[in-house]
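Researcher: Let's do a round of design. I'm pasting the structure tokens now; please hold your answer until I've finished.
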């Protein structure tokens, strides 16, 4: 595990990520779903724990949940918990920001 730089600055992050729109990020063999929500960047596994759909193809609701486009399961961005406990929780990833960039712990 190590910090991996994903943006060179907070400005770059805000220019590349639309608020509330999931974005796929691939680092090595890991596929992540990145979301800018309420001025925070959140990262969780991209693979839906129900049947494997890519959550970065989904949408985000006002509760801070990403909604899988296939069967509509909802996962809390902050915790990875499935809203109705029908499926396993998703792994979430810590993000930090400093003057040198935005980093993901992976
Ligand atoms: S694959 Fe995501 S809800 Fe079924």
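Researcher: That's everything. Go ahead.
Model: Designed sequence:
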């Amino acid at each position: 595990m190590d910090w991996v730089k994903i943006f060179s600055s907070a400005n770059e992050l805000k220019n590349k990520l639309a608020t509330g729109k999931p974005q796929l990020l691939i680092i090595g063999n890991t596929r992540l779903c990145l979301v800018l929500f309420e001025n925070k960047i959140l990262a969780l596994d991209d693979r839906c724990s129900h049947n494997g759909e890519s959550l970065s193809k989904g949408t985000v609701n006002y509760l801070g949940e990403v909604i899988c486009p296939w069967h509509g399961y909802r996962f809390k961005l902050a915790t990875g918990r499935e809203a109705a406990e029908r499926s396993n929780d998703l792994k979430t990833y810590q993000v930090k920001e400093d003057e040198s960039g935005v980093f993901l712990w992976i």
